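Risk register update: the risk of archive-format incompatibility is retired. Evidence:
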Amino acid sequence: LLAYFGEKKSQRCGICDVCLLKNKTNLNDIEFEQVVSAIKEILLKKERNLYELIPLLPQYHEDQIIDVVRWLLDNSKVSRDKEEMLFWHDQLNLTFE
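Archived output:
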């Protein structure tokens, strides 16, 4: 919702559904963003299924990766095709001049 109105950064309120899902990952904001960045870097290079993605992130626990991927899917940052391959979903940045 914040991105829709042009806000880039936000603090966890701990009340809304998005924040509650982030809290379930047992990661603080910095750790959460680090996992997101690592996943984004990997998926921008090549589509991967979850079972390929997890070993590429050995510094994080499997459950944390799965929770972050679930959050990314729920928030349309990552998409999944019919073969269960995950890919980073960049929304179109349209500007009108």
